[in-house]
Amino acid sequence: MLQLKPRIIELLKCEVGNGNSASFWFDSWTDFGQLITFLGDAGPRQLHIRRDTFVADASRNGDWTFPAARSENAQALMIALTAVAAPAACNGSDIYLWRKTSGEDGFYNHEDDSSKEVSL
Question: What is the mean predicted confidence (pLDDT) over 53-78?
Fold first, then answer.
């Protein structure tokens, strides 16, 4: 099972709604994948966000809350998040999506019969 973990990470993406269940560091909720991998072990210290934090905890009053970027990757993340709305209760629960296996780009929600897609 542990050997499958890297493969599962590649196949699973989180569409953030209220941000209350999506892990800030360990779920793939941005185009950068797992942020702990993208920013490294120093990421939590650089962004002042604990390793056990949920995405919702990285925002306040509808805005992302980050200190000044201290690395190029942190700056890239902050730039990318300017185009992403911060989580909000009115957005509903976070949704986990599986990568399509048919060779098509995108992800689908296995619980949704209409196979909701999210662009990569």
Answer: 95
